[in-house]
Specification:
It is a single chain. With about 150 residues, the chain is α+β, with helices and mostly antiparallel strands. Helices cover about 20% and strands about 35% of the residues. Strands 6-10-9-8-5-7 form a six-stranded mixed beta sheet. It has a four-stranded antiparallel beta sheet with strand order 1-2-3-4.
């Protein structure tokens, strides 16, 4: 239900299919979700929303249409973002206008190729009006080795 609320109706069933396993915290809350031995998502302790692994982001990317949850970076920034580096405001060429700061986002290039997943740091209006500063705290890129 949380994934449906966060990412869109029906996403939860696809993101966490039958056979998904859950790692619980000391307080017996869901902490991480795995499928076929790979981490799909982690529940944030502060609010219960999910942060996505690159596998989870790929599923959400495939299911969501058009610009939904997407931040599009310039061609120049794409190699850095897919390596797990921060996406800066000056490199954002397009963004879902319905996003809010703090939300989990999919970072793509102009062709809608998934580059990374991360947390939006500013509102879309702020990002498009600024020429400097971090816009997306990239959690993991498709070519980076770091995973939570």
């Amino acid at each position: 239900m949380i994934a449906d609320y966060q990412f869109g109706k029906g996403i939860g069933k696809e993101l966490f299919p039958e056979g998904s396993t859950f790692q619980l915290s000391r307080t017996k809350r869901v902490r991480q979700v795995f499928y076929s031995g790979k981490r799909i998502a982690t529940a944030r302790a502060k609010d219960g929303f999910f942060t996505l692994s690159i596998e989870g982001a790929s599923i959400v990317h495939r299911l969501l249409p058009g610009e939904k949850l997407r931040v599009v970076v310039s061609e120049d920034a794409a190699p850095f973002v897919e390596a797990g580096k921060t996406a800066f405001a000056k490199h954002i060429v397009e963004i879902d206008p319905e996003l809010r700061a703090g939300e989990e986002v999919l970072v793509t290039d102009n062709t809608d190729r998934l580059l990374a997943t991360g947390q939006l740091l500013l509102s879309p209006a702020e990002i498009l009006s600024l020429d400097s500063g971090a816009a997306v705290d990239v959690r993991v890129g498709i070519t980076s080795k770091k995973e939570e």
